[in-house]
């Protein structure tokens, strides 16, 4: 980790008029401030990752009844690899905002670049695994990706005092459940992209599209909640202890990390987990897993904000 090199990368931020962030400098600064960690795999470790993904796909297919693929290549990354892979995603999302803004002066661009570098570095040190549907990707061939950040997985397993192989397998199952969702609902990527673009476009024009953000929040709550539902049925081991230890770890974060998590909306993501899981538990209790999967039949089947807190309302609507 080299904080001087990180600061120098931010100070040298450049970019053409209208670019809010120098993305290359942001990535360079994030990596300079972040220990990459090791991807020197132990014998058989690469096959263990691949086996976990294959077995997760088979189990989730059986439970959900959905046909879906996972990426051909499972990427085992260090923290720098993750930053490089995700800076393009951030750039695509922010590009919608930049397209509607006036010219950013150099000082503002430097501040924006520094802020993004800090956030990329924080995420790079904390993300364990990621199913990336590559929203807003320019080329249709780049349809999805699956990443595992090995040094973060090993560090978290050690911190939580859990078996690293079991922990890695749990992460694999969780990310594969997300692949199942996007495979079962080919319209989901477009739905999320449209809501993001509508919300950002409104913000850039000085207004707030409440409906766009409410619909985006509802969709992401369903994505997280359904993943938890599939995990409950597909994972071949109890994992309540893993969830409990992870939650305790989050609660024990210092004030700076807590601030970053709030800035990044990670507290919102935890609420989406809990609210989405409660919604699907209510659906399955009143009906069954097959009925729960009807959320992916069409965009109109996504629950509203009110229905998320009253699953029987959703059941009455979709069962008409």
Automatic annotation (TrEMBL):
Segments passing through the bilayer: none
Pfam families in UniProt: Zincin_2
Domain of life: Archaea
Identification of the protein by name: Zinc-dependent metalloprotease
């Amino acid at each position: 980790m080299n904080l001087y090199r990180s600061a120098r990368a931010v100070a040298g931020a450049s970019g053409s008029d209208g670019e809010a962030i120098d993305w290359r400098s942001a990535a360079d600064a994030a990596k300079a401030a972040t220990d990459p960690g090791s991807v020197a795999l132990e014998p058989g470790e690469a096959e263990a990752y691949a086996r976990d993904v294959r077995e997760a796909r088979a189990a989730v297919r059986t439970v959900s009844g959905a046909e879906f693929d996972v990426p051909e290549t499972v990427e085992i990354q260090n923290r720098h690899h993750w930053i490089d892979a995700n800076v393009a995603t951030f750039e695509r999302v922010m590009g919608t905002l930049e397209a509607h803004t006036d010219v950013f002066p150099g000082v503002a661009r430097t501040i924006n670049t520094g802020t993004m570098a800090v956030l990329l570095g924080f995420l790079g040190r904390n993300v364990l695994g990621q199913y990336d549907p590559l929203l807003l990707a320019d080329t249709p061939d780049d349809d999805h990706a699956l990443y595992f950040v090995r040094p973060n997985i090993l560090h978290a397993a050690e911190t939580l005092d859990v078996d690293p192989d079991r922990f890695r397998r749990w992460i694999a199952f969780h990310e594969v459940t997300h692949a199942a969702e996007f495979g079962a609902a080919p319209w989901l990527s477009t739905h999320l992209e449209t809501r993001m673009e509508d919300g950002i476009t409104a913000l850039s024009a000085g207004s707030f599209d409440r409906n766009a953000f409410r619909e985006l929040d509802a969709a992401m709550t369903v994505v997280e909640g359904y993943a938890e539902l599939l995990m409950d049925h597909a994972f071949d081991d109890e994992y309540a202890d893993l969830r409990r230890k992870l939650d305790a770890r989050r609660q024990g974060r210092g004030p700076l990390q807590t601030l970053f998590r709030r800035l990044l909306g990670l507290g919102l993501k935890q609420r989406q987990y809990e609210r989405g899981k409660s919604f699907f538990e209510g659906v399955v209790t009143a009906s069954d897993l097959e009925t729960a999967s009807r959320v992916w039949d069409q965009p109109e089947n996504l629950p509203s904000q009110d229905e998320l807190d009253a699953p029987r309302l959703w059941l009455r609507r979709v069962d008409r």
